[in-house]
């Protein structure tokens, strides 16, 4: 089956978690908006297309199914791409972890947009500085400690009994945080040895390494979720 | 099976979406922290209990399974409690809608806590006023219009082909928004006839009516997600 991924062009955003799964598995997929433009997305959001009504991208077309919400897409793809261990308990736990990653991603986004996504960063810098300070001190360590604990409870190296879409998403999380908050992440370095080792192993997987080196991987930038603003990442 | 629900005492919070499903289905369940105190929750968060590691409540114990993340719990309970139409496509769409409700709930929470959940509302009132203004003007109409469209595309009265956990959650959403933003919701009244009718029908379901009239239903309050602060809901 050829999957169709619908996501905004120009940013990694939430589409990236799906891309990493498709790329790692060597799945056949079309990144629709990058081929045909963002109008292809708008037709679904406006209800002009059949099937499930998405609130926002990413969404995946798989045959006649339209599936939105990042974690929901991964729950669907997991067993089909061999990216989740077999069995209901593993699938449920993988999804729980993915949803916790999604919660973290919202908090990361809101560091630079605490007031409104519709306004520019420059319009909410004061609030962004306050929110990011609390994020660096409280939320970043809390989430990273949690995922480190998850790896410890998994098989010590991976979140679940074997490789899964959760590990791919943890790689993306660590990569994005390194880009956005290099100083804060340096200070966290010793607390997250398992996450660090996992991120390195994922980057070295042949299909992921090839993807990261290809033009299909969009670079991190200041339109995406992970943004680097020096004033939000003081050196101490 | 007797389900065990773990959620903080004193607020409806995200636990309420699970409670409404259990109550509507007449399921046998124990609301653990309300019987035994919050320590029962802490043991799971600290990793002292077996099974999946939750980042936060709510989580559900179902036999040996521990399931966290509200939408994930409902995905598990849906087929077991008869709260989702049969078939993979319906289950996936229900979950997509529930996750969009979850996204909306985060935005509702952050109206009064745009800077840090760890700080009091009084410490972030200036940012809260700005965030809530954008929420009332942009996000509230966008999400409510979307869910109204979902009902129109469902069977006209319900989100899916028949009653589901999504409808129960939409009831909770409308109830909470009526509590927190009565003025803004009055202005939205004519735009959401289907959501209004759905919320009334859900409130009249015998098990839900009995639950809402019981001491098991915690009242909305200013410790929860839906908070009423008059300054955040101007009359025009």
From TrEMBL, chains A, B:
List keywords of the entry alphabetically. Transferase
The record's GO molecular-function terms, alphabetically, read: glutathione transferase activity
Question: Which InterPro entries does the record match to this protein?
Answer: Glutathione-S-Trfase_C-like, Glutathione-S-Trfase_C_sf, GST_C, GST_superfamily, Thioredoxin-like_sf
Q: Which GO terms describe its biological process?
A: glutathione metabolic process
* GST C-terminal domain residues: 91-232
PROSITE patterns attached to this UniProt entry: GST_CTER
UniProt name for this protein:
Glutathione S-transferase
């Amino acid at each position: 089956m050829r999957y169709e991924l619908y996501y905004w062009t120009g940013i990694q955003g939430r589409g990236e978690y799906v891309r990493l799964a498709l790329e790692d598995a060597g799945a056949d997929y079309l990144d629709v908006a990058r081929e045909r433009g963002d109008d292809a997305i708008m037709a679904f959001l406006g209800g002009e297309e059949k099937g499930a009504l998405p609130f926002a991208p990413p969404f995946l077309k798989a045959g006649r199914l339209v599936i939105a919400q990042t974690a929901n897409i991964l729950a669907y793809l997991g067993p089909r791409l061999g990216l989740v261990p077999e069995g209901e308990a593993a699938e449920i736990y993988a999804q729980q972890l993915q949803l916790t990653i999604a919660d973290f991603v919202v908090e990361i986004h809101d560091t630079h947009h605490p007031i409104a996504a519709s306004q520019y960063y420059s319009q909410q810098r004061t609030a962004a500085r306050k929110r990011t300070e609390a994020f660096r001190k409280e939320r970043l360590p809390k989430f990273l400690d949690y995922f480190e604990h998850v790896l410890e409870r998994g098989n010590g190296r991976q979140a679940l009994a074997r490789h899964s879409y959760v590990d791919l998403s943890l790689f993306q999380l660590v990569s994005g945080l390194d880009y956005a908050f290099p100083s804060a992440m340096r200070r966290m370095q010793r607390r997250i040895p398992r996450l660090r080792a996992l991120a390195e192993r994922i980057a070295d997987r042949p299909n992921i390494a090839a993807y990261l080196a290809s033009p299909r991987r969009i670079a991190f930038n200041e339109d995406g979720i992970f943004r680097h603003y020096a004033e939000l990442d003081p050196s101490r």
